[in-house]
Specification:
about 450 residues, alpha/beta, two-stranded antiparallel sheet
Length: about 450
Amino acid sequence: MPLYNRASSHRMYFSNVFAISCSAPADKMSKPAAKRKKSSTGGGSGCLNELLADLDLGDQATKPKDVANALLSLLPNDATKQHSSAKKLAKAFPLVMAELDARANKLARQAHQVGARQPIRFSFADSGDKITLPEECFANVLHFLDGREVVNASLASKVWLSATRSPQIWEDGIDMSRLNLNKALNMTSLLKLLGRPQFASLRALALPYKVKLGKNSVKQISQVCPQLEICDLGYYSKNTKAKDADLFAVTEYFPNLTSLRTDMWNVTTSGIASAVRAMGDQLLDLRISGDTITRHYPSRMTMDAIISSCPNLEYFAYRAFSVSMYYNPDLDGVTGAAIVRLVQGCRRLKTLELHCATHVKKEHFLEIANTVANDLDSFALRTLKAVGYDGGRTGRNGIDEYLDPFDVRSLLQGFAFLKVEDQFSRPTLGRGIMFLGKRTGD
């Protein structure tokens, strides 16, 4: 990025200041720049050179405060944020950061190109033997690592950096759901991240926490991730701020989409019904997290839409985590009868996952198991995940007053064909990209 070299009565852009200070002789520092005050009648690059010549950014004795004071001394004594000179100074910082990012990207591309031309070799210290590993074999090794470990591996050498940037390493998906937990992620930054070459073949994506979506944003994501098959709009992390229009836009702009996962903080039952009707028999995986604060739950109409529109559904999950003081069972349409009809209507369903679905009782689980047992060839259901039905776990989730605790495993132990799980484990979505933020516990 070009750095401006214009002198005026209001001084130069900080980008030029940065270039001059970096190229200045590395002499010993004189008195702190804070004690230097620019004359109100002075100006020009000569004065600027004289002012910053003593700053040596490579010297450990030079503190950020020294640099800040030197920059502030360029401004009039009475200047505030609203002063024209201060505005120029503030606008220069993004230019500096953009230039540094451009340099970093250039160096990374050069390192990647150098590494791509070299073989992947391993040396054994004991025997002195050396072996060359084909790229395909090394890629298989990297598939056993999570996102943080892959990034650490990329720091080993230029060859490893090149290998970790292969789209094959990341195509299974990236989980950004717990990235940037404290504030909304800028969509420009998100698109820039997803536009990296290693994500060219991305098939699964969990969007960051509190990301601000919109139809145009979804369209832009589809342009950088055209092969996306799985889209998580907050099913596990909750509160991605997705709305009905965003949910429908996802079904519109991702032609290969087969899995849709969302929370219902802003999404309504009508939004889910519209999305499943739009996807129809292309939808293989649907996961919904009801929200008892906003009192958004799948209604009977939503369940009917799923049953009638998604005959190829293979995975259905519903979560109802919250506290009893907000939970309204009258609005929750995921009833035991609805789940039984779902299993009967979607015979390709392989996995049924329920978390504290208060209307699904013992008799409904038994009816489902008996229905499948009587015709194993017609029903694909082989895995049942029922979490929160024992006394201890439901008490933690605060809706125990609506549930009669029972042991699901013991209840269904006579059905050998059915794998029953009653413990929650947060699944990983491909190779997590949570290394960009603080990794939190499950």
